[in-house]
Write a structure and sequence with these properties.
Helices cover 29% and strands 23% of the residues. The chain is of the alpha/beta class and 441 residues long. The strands form four sheets. Strands 2, 14, 15, 16, 17, 18, 19, 20 and 21 form a nine-stranded mixed sheet that branches. The longest helix is centred in the middle third of the chain and has 19 residues, at 264-282.
Length: 441
């Protein structure tokens, strides 16, 4: 048996800058600010780290990238070349995946709306593995598959309803995602398995769950897998041949933003032990999918901004930069604390309270300081760098105050800097917002 009581883990309590001060200053001199920069080496390194973290599992392991975290085409191309799985949840994401020459056999499609036309589009594109999260969605998938004469490998997204200690919880009683194992309505894994097995156009493939983001205590995985084991044993009384081919345990591997977090290697070691026990208990050799959006992309990215103004009063100093929450919306929505630092650095010690503010005319355009932040000696024309912003930042860009999207640069494996998204011009924004339509207004 695997020890399920929580054991304190070794914790990450620092980060290593991936761009030097000189590189940062040179990038701003050439491209201006604000700008996003992504490091290709770090993207690849995170894939390898996550794969190695589960190396003690006695079966196949596949890393899956949740494309919602960062769908920049250059990022997708890098991950395509790593041969990993992609978790998609919309037709738009599927379009980005296909247009970046992704191999369709590497798609796991997990819709929230689960509409029949959506499923028909996905099946026509050649996707063979689809996760269903509701009984109505399952009915829509059956109709789509039968209409197209296709057979679909089908997984069920379950909600294990276990306690999760995490920044964002996705598993709790009556949660939005997935279905419970049992219940008083058709929306339960029990009823959905019966429907899948009774449908020739579908083939039961396994289970998917996602417990949360920035998981601090990995024993929630142990608890979820315990409940899954009991459920499968129960269902085998009705379906003796019921087998799991794929088990997708979702994401949750935490990123360091300033607060100590468990290391992926130690989470993987703990969870792999339980997965091995589950495989043995069920006499089933399944493939494990380890999903991640944040962990794979976050630490590869930074946002470089410039201090454009400062003001001091009431014993506080306000540092105003040319970025805003339109570029880091998590800072306003979730009070995400990105590590921040001033370039060039200084040994100066600030005695007053420092407040980092953006350029937007909005009360919430204040960036929370991470425990790893160092804003000492921030003065006009110096740079402020936001670290670990590669996930859930670029995808939230918005034109509040008629702000245009900044360029995105990528440092390739050979050290070359390549532009992977051009900066948006005010003319392009005006046109996108309907400016040209005024000609006939």
């Amino acid at each position: 048996m695997v020890e399920t009581s929580y054991q304190p883990l070794t914790r990450i309590n620092s980060y290593i800058p991936i761009f030097s001060e000189l590189e940062i200053q040179q990038l701003v001199e050439k491209y201006g600010s604000p700008i996003y920069v992504i490091d290709e080496y770090t993207l690849r390194k995170k894939v390898a780290t996550l794969e190695n973290a589960y190396s003690t599992f006695n079966g196949p392991v596949r890393v899956a990238y949740s494309i919602k975290a960062n769908f920049n085409p250059a990022v997708l191309k890098v991950f395509h070349s790593e041969g990993i799985i992609f978790d998609l949840t919309s037709i738009g994401e599927l379009e980005f995946f296909l247009r970046t020459e992704g191999a369709v056999e590497n798609v796991i499609y997990t819709s929230v709306t689960e509409e029949r036309p959506e499923y028909e589009t996905v099946i026509k594109a050649g996707v063979k593995r689809i996760v269903v999260s509701s009984y109505n969605g399952l009915v829509n998938l059956v109709e789509a598959a039968e209409n197209l004469g296709a057979q679909v490998n089908t997984m069920i997204r379950i909600n294990p309803e276990v306690g999760v200690k995490a920044e964002v919880r996705a598993s709790y009683r009556h949660g939005k995602f997935g279905v419970p194992f049992n219940g008083n309505t058709v929306d339960s894994a029990t009823n959905m398995i019966r429907k899948i097995i009774a449908t020739p156009s579908l083939k039961f493939d396994g289970f998917h769950f996602h417990l949360g983001s920035q998981i601090e205590d990995p024993t929630c995985f142990i608890n979820a897998l315990d409940k899954l084991e009991a459920f499968v044993i129960k269902m085998r009384k009705e379906f003796p041949d019921l087998d799991i081919k794929i088990l997708d345990i979702g994401g949750g591997t935490p990123v360091f933003y300033g607060t100590p977090v468990p290391m992926p290697e130690e989470i993987g070691l703990l969870v792999s032990g339980k997965l091995n026990a589950l495989s043995e208990a069920l006499s089933s050799r399944f493939t494990v999918f380890i999903e991640s959006g944040r962990y794979l992309a976050a630490e590869a990215g930074l946002l470089i901004s410039k201090v454009v103004n400062t003001k001091v009063y009431g014993g506080q100093k306000f540092i105003i930069v040319d970025a805003g929450y339109h570029l880091l919306l998590d800072a306003a929505l979730l009070h995400q604390m990105y590590p921040q630092e001033v370039v060039p650095k200084s040994d100066k010690v600030e005695e007053m309270k420092l407040n980092l503010a953006g350029r937007l005319c909005d009360t919430y355009d204040i960036f929370p300081a991470s425990p790893a932040s160092n804003l000492a000696a921030a003065e006009k024309d110096k740079l402020v760098v936001f670290r670990n912003i590669g996930a859930y930042s670029i995808v939230f860009n918005m034109p509040f105050h008629c702000q245009t999207k900044p360029p995105i640069l990528m440092r390739r494996m050979n050290g070359e800097i390549q532009m992977v998204r051009k900066g948006e011009t005010i003319e392009e924004l005006f046109e996108n917002e309907g400016g040209k339509l005024l000609e006939n207004f």
